[in-house]
Design brief:
Oligomer: single chain
Number of strands: 5
Strand content: 15-25%
Order of helices and strands: HHHEEEEEHHHH
Largest sheet: 3 strands, antiparallel
Distance between the termini: 50 Å
Structural class: alpha+beta
Strand order of the largest sheet: 1-2-5
Shape: elongated
Length: 227
Amino acid sequence: MALRTHPRVVPTPLSSLGSAWGPGLVMRLALGAALALGLAMVPPETIPGLMAYLQWVTQPLLPAETIISFGTSSLSVQGSGDQVIEMAVRRTSGLVVGQTYLPAHEQSLAKVSTLKGAIFQPAVLALPLLLAWPLGAKPHWPSIGFRLLGWLALLPLAVIAQVPAQLTASVWNLYLEVYAPDRWPFTVLWTRWLDAGGRWALGLVMALGALALSRLINRRLNPTKHT
């Protein structure tokens, strides 16, 4: 009786990558990219309470100012209009910068702004990575939903990671350039770190944090599977 032989299947690098990262990798990447694109296109002023939330977080960070107005506007630079978040402030208390004391000047008005797209940058960067992360040897597809729940839980923190610091740093720079060019408050250092690539690191941290939260949610909802 002749023995049948079956051809040996040699795994390709692409199939090995797919098995390592779980099924549906391309679909999950596409879903993450689609959600990220949709979030990036949402006008922040249409989200109820978002501007008030950002203003509430920014106010304690300011050196000596009171926020007069906070919202979105269009900034025209060389014929092109950029949508920005603009903040107007007045110095309502005294402030020491370097060796100079600056008294309150409630008649002064300073305006600073940052690009509107900065609000959701860490969250947008986190989505594709979060959804593409390996599902495990026995994938549990509802875990995709748990990951999105973890991402939503961290969204309020991710939203304040850039805009308040950038606006506050812009106010500080109005003083530092004149009175203390060698001084670096935390918000200024944080903003420079963001500009040097920190936004990508924030996206990674948010993705890992959302992944950890999703596993915690999964364990709480399915305790028998983890005993």
